[in-house]
Specification:
By secondary structure, this protein is mainly alpha-helical. The chain contains 6 helices and no strands.
Length: 110
């Protein structure tokens, strides 16, 4: 059954299709738990302290510990996704700076 579920996730081809599946398949509570776990992992991966994670996300230290434990004990799949998220963030910052610079140049030429 687990392999079938993984297959289903793998065949989702677009963000819209994935979002529809996510909202149809998981309850609101499950969606919140899933996204908070990902946010905890991302924050820990970026070097946030437990207290910061707890304060921002309103999660228990035991939840943070569980996420940290699976990051520490392997978690290569999660780490790969986190690295992609961080690269995407950096690209957004880069393009925002480029667009801002180009806008400044255009304004100066007017």
């Amino acid at each position: 059954i687990r392999d079938d579920f993984i297959w289903v996730i793998g065949v989702l081809r677009s963000q819209e299709e994935t979002k529809a599946f996510f909202y149809d398949f998981f309850t609101k509570t499950e969606r919140v738990m899933f996204t908070k776990r990902l946010a905890i992992a991302l924050m820990l991966h970026k070097g946030y302290k437990y207290e910061q994670v707890q304060s921002i996300l309103h999660v228990s230290t035991s939840t943070i510990n569980r996420v940290m434990n699976w990051l520490d004990s392997g978690g290569s799949g999660v780490k790969s996704v986190l690295d992609k998220l961080i690269r995407e963030e950096k690209m957004e910052v880069f393009w925002t700076k480029i667009n801002s610079t180009l806008d400044s140049i255009v304004r100066l030429r007017k």
